[in-house]
Design brief:
Layout lengths: L27 E5 L6 E8 L9 E9 L9 E6 L7 H10 L3 H6 E7 L12 H8 L8 H19 L5 H4 L4 H15 L4 E6 L1 H12 L4 E7 L8 H24 L2 H6 L4 H14 L2 E6 L5 E6 L1 H10 L4 H15 L4 H11 L16 H11 L7 H18 L35 E6 L7 H10 L3 E6 L12 H13 L7 E4 L21 H13 L2 H4 L7 E4 L5 E6 L7 E11 L2 E10 L4 E10 L3 E8 L2 E8 L2 E7 L1
Parallel strand pairs: 4-5, 4-6, 6-7, 7-10, 10-11, 11-12
Antiparallel strand pairs: 1-2, 2-3, 3-5, 8-9, 13-14, 14-15, 15-16, 16-17, 17-18, 18-19, 19-20
């Protein structure tokens, strides 16, 4: 079952202003946020801002004051993706990469939306993990029955850990917007600058529509078109995932090393792999950190889930290219690692990892309350959803499971009927809309549709690019956004186009056998590539010790180094990515200086001890192999 829509869901919510719009929050407390520079502000807000319930809940927002009070311009509020992602968990890492001038001029505000993280912490991770590992196809009556049964079972299991439906109905984007408004009133801020990414663009558009006089400027990054209903959004997104996957595979074909690893044609390799897994799941041996292997399986649904999870950014697309290339030759280990990473599963236990910062329970609580997925009984709504899927499966050749990601919503308890979104009040707000032509989750056409409805909107479109493009070290969008925030200047033209790529530079797969290495330097370079491109390392939190099984035996452990700051210490135990080249020892990766070292004992086809050092693009290996001195360099 595919999880990809979890980063970009549209909603149509209850219109109108709350009966208590001008009341202050019921209570306030301030504490240092956990392991953070931000101050957490706890406010008591009505469960229902529109007066149907007298209950209150606690919502937590974090604030980091402007560094230069003399330059302070206001509050910049960031609404992150999801729904379900914790803004507070992302706050420090995000703030650390912002332009210094923005940090000087703005109080930065991040928040955990009601039901998420510190603001209630909805959780049904076990139910979600089980659901996402079920078959996400609906091509046959048997598959459709299984889809419906899995969705119903997930909802039943998830609801057991959530508030009752009479409370759950108030977890909507429209209600959450009023929580932010009460925070604004409590802080005494006249107007807010709003930056939304992915689902956060849905949140910020709603706030701008109902509190337009309180918005100084609006930035929509990976924009969701609120004029679309849920089914249309899911259909358009499924098509975008297919298109970006195809572009990623064609990008592989344009790069000689990638095309070679994919055995000549990455598009054909993927389609053959999909057809093979559609006929029957593949069985393979997955390496564990204790040096043993375990039998695992992968089918078409797992392939599409892995692909969907790794189509969001240029680096992730390159990792997907490597996994598809490896699987085309019968090695499913990398593809399995991507699948587990996409679902946030421990590769050893296949259970949900802790502290992911994302809540599937909150995702469905908001999505299923915000959307209207057909009418009638749950069974009738399920049948209507499946029939809508028929047209998708006929028209879109790949990634069809994306469409069924919100099927649980037909069984989710709902109250009332969501009304249409009205953008008219926000028409005159100065707005930047950022998009990328290779965005699979919020297709670039949606941002263009939003711009046509607004009088003061400008588009910044990256050719290729990632889902969400600001603050990714790309000067073109970053410069324009920074100027907008600091100087109130919109680009003069309706659309600015920024150069970009589909995928990062491809790094070749390690050969299956060490005999193919030209020399010890080539072998060590390949080992470094495999180690640093493990999905477990790519998504590592940088703070806890993690061990992984190496593809050809043994294990690697990575942990934060004491010095230098931000470096990673590797410990290798019989680790091999190519048969016959087995390493034991230690290594250090310092990404800030772009340095990497290994001090290892070598066993397998040759025996010896090697020291490997890379500084940027300069490489050196020294030591002995089979009693012969080794000293090789590459500048």
């Amino acid at each position: 079952m595919n999880r990809c829509l979890a980063l970009a869901l549209i909603a149509t919510c209850l219109a109108g202003r709350p009966a208590q719009a001008q009341t202050q929050a019921l209570a306030i407390a301030r504490n240092t946020c956990p392991e953070s520079e931000f101050t957490c502000i706890f406010i008591r807000v009505p469960l229902d801002h529109f007066g149907q319930s007298d209950e209150t809940i606690t919502v937590v927002l974090g604030i980091l004051p402007a560094r230069d009070p003399a330059k302070r311009k206001g509050m910049l509020v960031t609404a992150v993706g999801g729904p379900g992602a914790s803004g507070l968990q992302a706050a420090d890492a995000y703030a650390a990469t912002l332009d210094d001038a923005i940090r000087d001029a703005f109080d930065l505000v991040f928040f955990d939306q009601r039901g998420i993280g510190l603001s209630g912490g909805f959780d049904c991770a076990e139910a979600a993990a089980a659901y996402y590992q079920t078959d996400g196809r609906g091509r046959t009556p048997v598959q459709e029955s299984a889809l419906v049964a899995a969705a119903r079972r997930f909802v039943d299991d998830c609801l057991r850990s959530l508030p009752p439906p009479e409370q759950l109905q108030f977890y909507t984007t429209r209600q959450a917007v009023e929580d932010l408004e009460l925070f604004r009133q409590t802080m005494g801020e006249t107007r807010l600058w709003l930056y939304g990414e992915s689902y956060g663009t849905q949140f910020t558009q709603w706030y701008a529509a109902v509190h337009s006089e309180r918005v100084a400027g609006l930035i929509l990054d990976g924009a969701v078109d609120l004029a679309l209903d849920g089914v249309r959004f899911a259909r358009d997104t499924t098509r975008a995932f297919n298109d970006v996957l195809l572009a990623t595979l064609k990008d592989c074909n344009a790069k000689p090393n990638c095309r070679r690893d994919a055995r000549g044609d990455a598009v054909r390799a993927y389609d053959r792999l999909a057809a093979r897994l559609d006929r029957a799941s593949a069985t393979f041996l997955f390496p564990l950190p204790d040096g043993t292997v375990v039998t695992r399986t992968l089918g078409l649904s797992e392939l599409e889930t892995a692909a969907a999870g790794f189509l969001y950014t240029e680096n992730e697309r390159m990792l997907l290219q490597r996994a598809i290339a490896a699987a085309s030759g019968g090695d499913y280990t990398l593809l399995a690692r991507l699948f587990y990473a996409s679902l946030g599963l421990d590769p050893v236990t296949l259970r949900p990892l802790l502290s992911s910062g994302y809540s599937d329970a909150a995702y469905y609580a908001f999505t299923c309350n915000d959307y209207r997925y057909f009418d009638g009984s749950p069974d009738a709504r399920a049948r209507a959803y499946l029939r809508a899927g028929d047209a998708v499966e006929r028209a879109i050749p790949r990634m069809q499971s994306v469409f069924y990601g919100d099927l649980p919503c037909v069984f989710w308890p709902r109250r009332g009927v969501p009304a249409s979104y009205d953008p008219a009040p926000a028409r005159e707000i100065p707005t930047l809309i950022l998009g990328a032509t290779a965005d699979p989750a919020t297709p670039v056409e949606q941002g263009r549709a939003i711009a046509r409805r607004l009088a003061r909107a400008r588009l910044i479109t990256t050719l290729g690019g990632a889902h969400v493009t600001f603050n990714r070290s790309d000067d073109c969008p970053d410069r324009l956004v920074t100027r907008f925030l600091l100087d109130d200047v919109l680009p003069p033209q309706a659309e600015t186009r920024c150069a970009g790529v589909i995928a990062s530079d491809y790094v070749p797969l390690a050969p299956a056998d060490a005999k193919r290495f030209a020399d010890a330097l080539a072998a060590m370079q390949s080992f470094e590539v495999e180690l640093l491109h493990l999905p477990e390392y790519y998504y590592w939190d940088g703070g806890t010790e993690v061990s992984v099984g190496c593809a050809r035996g043994g294990a690697a452990t990575f942990a934060p180094a004491e010095v230098p700051e931000g470096a990673t210490l590797f410990t290798l135990s019989g680790c091999a990515f190519s048969s016959g080249f087995v390493l034991s020892g230690t290594g250090l990766h310092d990404p800030r200086q772009d340095h990497f070292t290994l001090d290892v004992q070598v066993s397998g086809k040759q025996v010896g001890a090697l020291r490997y050092l890379r500084k940027g693009e300069a490489f050196r290996v020294t030591g002995t192999l089979d009693g012969r001195a080794i000293e090789l360099r590459q500048e």
